[in-house]
Each structure stands twice: as structure tokens, then as C-alpha cells.
Amino acid sequence: MKVSILLAIMTTLALAEAPAPPQTAGNLTGLVTDVNTGNPISGARVTVEGTGLSTLTAANGRYSLSVTIPESSTRDVIVRVVMIGYTQATTTVTVGAEAVEVDFALQPSAIEFNDSRVGPVLQAEDESRRERTDKLRGIVGFPMNAVSPRSRMTRQISFAPSEELRRHGNALPGRYDPDFQREGYDRIYENPFLATGPNPLSTFSIDVDRASYSNVRRFIRSGRLPPADAVRIEELINYFTYDYAEPEGPHPFSVTTEVAPAPWNPLHRLVRISLQGRTIDTENLPASNLVFLIDVSGSMNAPDKLPLLKSAFQMLVQELRPQDRVAIVVYAGAAGLVLDSTPGDEKHTIMAALDDLRAGGSTAGGAGIELAYRVARRNHIRGGNNRVILATDGDFNVGASSDGEMVRLIEEKRERGSFLTVLGFGTGNLQDAKMEKLADHGNGNFAYIDDLLEAKKVLVTELGGTLHTIAKDVKLQVEFNPARVRGYRLIGYENRIMAAEDFRDDKKDAGELGSGHSVTALYEIIPQGVESGAEIRGLDPLRYRSTSVRPEAEAGSELLFVKLRYKQPTGEKSVELTHIVYDETSRASDDLRFAASVAAFGMVLRGSEHCGETTLADVAAWAQASMGADLEGYRSEFVRMVKAAQRLQPDPVPVR
User: Which of 51, 137, 328, 531 could form a disulfide with 338 if both were Cys (CB 3.0 to 4.6 A apart)?
Assistant: First the structure.
């Protein structure tokens, strides 16, 4: 008996000491499409069963997973694809050292939804608290693009409106129905062409927000064209990444420029001015003191609001480090602290608190913001990223709710070192104007999240830019050479225009640039000697003074002169940079051509007088020809969105 026990112990020890067989990773990639249309499907969940591996397909329908296999061997795995509105697909794949490409063509299911106007579709799973907790524990360690098991929210990248919506949605297909929405947008007055002589300077604050793009996408995906005031062209352009050089010197961003003909009017020129913020690796970012300020009022009780919000924040929690801290404040009829400041490595605690949130009541937004800032101040990290992240549909209706009161409060907290990021959710009463205003005055940015893929883009892929400021109060001032420029207009940035005197005034607030963020500004200029049908605004001749052009301006080849000012994130004195743009027109780069097509899309949607005879078909063709590598799939998604918007345009009324 003793001999048997001894042999068993020796065998166990020998097995324990034996080296584990060497392992390697087998790459599994593929494309998920609609079997009927061939269009790529984004947001589909691809799972390798029995491994805990899971991912979502990107905007171009592609996915990629790494499966652990024994070295010099193969492994059979079961791959499952699930997408709401489609029949799930399963196949067995042999994974080895060579990359395996497995494509799926999904068959639409016969499921009908009660409200075709809601873009994202919710699959809610009612589980016991114990089952939820067990699954939450399983989340830690699996890929960062995984979704909360409590609420899985995915989207089908299909922009075609349903027949039911076409019959009953609007009198004219694609027209925005103001009676259907209670959403709030500020009036946009498009920038006109200005005569260079009396208006030599153009001054504006940068804008790194991207909310308008995902909001426009939400309208088109639900079968409606957006209202004109929802289309902020600079936010459409800045949604995309471009091939801009990383900064090399002491300044936190690089500056590049380019000049080329405008596609909608070849006699005019486009000038691109681009900033590229320095990218800081996540592990090198300062410690974060975050307060999640979450709206749990009754207006958030919709699939594309609180459930999507919770899943989005759970993605962010996966990115937290031990040195980061999170507190959760909620507000409805009153405000309350759900979770006091908790280290970032206590993910189970944070996600369980998120998972238990429920919607109901009115909206005491002012009280919630007050409490969130108090919690942020109490846990302030010197030299760290101290930030309140407000997530809401923007509906404030109890307590301090006027824009003026909110702005004054947020400006006061900003000066004490706590910044504000605003995330918008939902359909029907989105208070876009209010949320953008709060983020601007809080030294933060504003994003609209319409699905989990957008949540991943904002809170995972672009986490550094979303949460970590590398330069604040960034302003640009452009001086045009009147010898070469007859007139000019800034495309977009209407609510970022500043007085020329504000450029050197360090008390004037301006936009913030985050880690890895890029900013693109486009000017359309009318060269001297070009007869243009565009109206150019100027001044009547002055009685007591005249303007003259310096001889060196007429003799030289300078087109314009760019000045930039910025402050360090904790600084109070600005630094100035300058950049000369010469009158050298060449064939436009793919980046400029694509940015121009996005600008043209915004102009057509807004009914701009400056886009001439440009159609959405032109826009789609320009964008298609300038997509470049498109590794992320966002540019091809844009082309599909433009074509969908084209289908939504009402037919022209025949002339009799």
C-alpha cells in the first residue's frame, strides 16, 4: 500500500516537473457578409467555442482571432457567428501554423422588430445575479472588444430603410420629421466667402469631437436624412484617421499643409491644415481619477440608451490599470453615489455596480454634476487625469438645468483641474447642442455612441485621445495673402469662430487635443484673377483709410501664413507656432481627396449654396477613389452611408 502511494506521488511530481509542450498561436481571420446582398456585416460576434475567445466584426465586416495550438501541430475548433436579425452560423475549422481564412455569409432571419426606427438591436438576457456574477468573472482577461454578458448590443451595417418605414415614416422618404423627434440642435449659419482685403485674418478654435458623424449615421441607418443643424462638417471630417506625421520636436503636435483644386469647383482651391497629436502608449499615460456620471432617469429606459451605456462602460473598465480609479455617480429624481472611488484592477466590483443600474424617474442633471465634481475633487490625483465622464441623452429637467448655470459650474471646476467628457446615447430626445456646449466648456470632448462598435472606437481604440489631454486652448489664426487670394471660406467650425483679438488672449478658452488625436481644417479659396459665381462678402470703401499690399507679398509665392497657440494641459501661458503655406498646387493626396469628399457630403446634406451641382453620387465616387488602404473599414462604411443617403433623397419635383 505504501509502495503504491509512493509511486503515485513520484508520478505526480514527474508530471508536474515535465515541461509544458511548446505552444504557438494560429491566426483565424475572415469576412462576415449578408448572403443576399453581399454587404459586410459589422458588429457580428465571432466566438471560438470552448476557448473564451470572442470578438466583433469591424466596420468592413472582417474579424481576427489568435487561437493557441501546440507547436508543429493543428487543432480543430468550432467557430460560431451570431448577429441579431440573422440565423447563426457554425463551422469546424482546423487551425495550424498557417493563417486560416474562414468567411461567413449569414442568412437574414424572419424576426420582425416592433420599431424599425431604432438602429441598434438589444438582446437582453435575464439571468440570476449569481449567473451574471460568474460570467462577469469570466470577462476579465478576454479580448478587449468583448461585450458585457448582461446586455449584448450589436448593429447590422445596413443603411436601407424598411418598407414599413417608407410607408409610414414620412410624407417624403428620407425627410426629417420634427414631430417625431424632441432632439435639440443649435442653428448653424454656414461660413460665407470673405474678401481677403478687409478680412485678412481667420481665427478659430480646434474641434476634435466626432459626435456629429455617428449621429448622422444613426439617422441614415434608421431611414431618415438628418436635420441640417445636426451636420457639423468638421466633425464628419475629423471622424477619420489620416496619414499625418507624428511630431518630432518639443511640441505635442505636428503641422502639415496641402493645396489642391476643389473637386466641386476646380477653379477654386482647397487648403488643408492638419495637426497630429503625439501618441502616448496607454501604459505611459498618467494615472486616471475618473467619475462615471450616469443618467438613469426614465428617458434612459430604451435599448439604445442605458443597456448600451452599461456595455460601453464595461469596455472602458477592461482598459483600466491598477493605478487608475473609478467612482460611479447616478442621477434621476436625485443624485447618488453608487460606487466610491475604486482601483482599476477591481474590475468585478466596478462592473457589478454598472450591471445593477436601472432607469426611472426625472432628471436632476445639475445635482448629478455637482456631486460628481465633489467626488472627483475628493480623489484628485496631482499630475493625473482627473475627469468626469457624463453619459446621458442630455435631458436635464430638474434642478440647475439652464445652459448658463451648467456652463458656469463646469468652467469653475475646469479651472480647479477636473475636466469633462460627454457621451451621448439614444434617439428621440438627444440634446446635442447642450451636450456639445458642456464638453467644450469642460475642456473635454463630445462623442455620440450609437452601438458597441462606436463604443469600442471611442473608449478602447481612441482611449488616449478621449480621456488624456496633451494640449489645451489650441487656436489657429490664418492670414491670407491678398495678392494671391481674392476670397476664402472656412469649411465647418461655425461654432468655433473666434475674434482676431482672442488669438493672443490666454483667458479665452479654446479646444483641447488628446493623445493621438488629429485635426483637419479645410479652407476653400478663390485665387486672384478667378471669376467666380460665389458671393464674396467685403466692406464698402473706407473714407479715412486705405489698404495696400506690400511689394514682397506680391512678388513672393506665399499663399497664407498660419499661426497656432496652445497651452500645456496644466499651463496658463500659451506657446506660439508658425507655418507658411506656399502657392504650390499639386495633385491631391488620398487623404485630402477623401476629406474633401466628406466635406462635400456634409455640404449636400446641409443644402449648402457652395457645393454647386455636386450630388451624392459624385461624393460616393470621390470617396471610393480615395479610400486608400482603409485598414479599419471606416472609409468603405462611409461610401455605403453616402449611397444609402442617396436612396433617401426625395425625387425632384418635375417642372411643368
Answer: 328
| Residue 458 per-residue DSSP state | I
Which ranges constitute the DSSP H helices of 333-445?
347-355, 365-378, 403-415, 432-441
Where do the structural domains in the chain lie, given as residue ranges? 20-108, 193-280+471-648, 290-445
pLDDT tens sequence across 511-527: 999 999 999 999 999 99
User: Phi/psi at 505 (nearest 5 deg)?
Assistant: -90, 105
Least Cα distance to 596 among 269, 276, 277 occurs for 269
Distance from chain centroid for Cα 549 = 43
- For cell 465586416, what's the residue? 61
- Residue 229 parent element (H or E): none
- Kindly tell me if the per-residue pLDDT of 570 is higher than 50: yes
Identify the CA nearest to 269 among candidates 558, 499, 527, 556.
527
Note the pLDDT of residue 93.
Answer: 87
pLDDT for the residue numbered 528: 93
CA 533 to chain centre: 36
How does 321-347 read in b/e, with b if 16+ C-beta sit within 10 Å? eeebbbbbbbbbeebeeebebbebebb
Predicted pLDDT of residue 10: 52
Same fold, 20-108 and 290-445: no
Q: Can you give the pLDDT at residue 279? A: 92
Architecture of domain 290-445: 3-Layer(aba) Sandwich (3.40)
Q: Which residues, other chains included, contact 141 with Cβ-Cβ below 8 Å and sequence gap of 6+?
A: 52
List of E strands, 405-484 = 419-425, 446-449, 469-480
Higher per-residue confidence, 245 vs 125: 245
- Name 566's bridge partners: 575
